[in-house]
Amino acid sequence: NPGIVGQLHKRLFRPRTTRFHYGIIGEYILKDNDWTIFESIAKGTAVGRLSWYLNEDIEVYRVAGPDYIGTLASLEATNMGRRRYDYRLLGVIAWKSLVAMWKNWRVGGQFFVSYRDLPYIGGLDLICTEMVMECYRPYFPIIDERFLATPANFKQSVLDGRIRTVAKWRPGGQLITLP
User: Who's near 57: CB < 8 A, 6+ residues apart?
Assistant: First the structure.
């Protein structure tokens, strides 16, 4: 369920997406029939369990490269262990989005923000989408890295075929595996 930032992103960013939180699935835990996950949340980079999201509507993506790249990215996530959540970047995104909406409205009468309106800004702290991008960066360009790692940028990667949906999890535990 997206908060206020997710709701604004859903209404104003292009391409449109219904996904607002991103993480990396790690190793399978046989004894618990669960998976490890790596994500960037309010307290910073965290390790958790996929089962914590059983009541959420989630999608699982795979890169359009060799299967082992996902394993390498999950191992790279262990290097992110002490990174904080980047609240400052949320403010930067908000400000740059307002500027972009104003420009887009003045030029074409459209009140939206394209992911291309937000150039990449490197930093030490991470929001969830940046953590995923940083974990894949050494191995496979999952998004257009010239621009900020926003949910719209990830959606464009799905449309471009760099990543693809392989499974969907619906609230209550219904797993839908896709070919």
Answer: 18, 168, 169, 170, 171
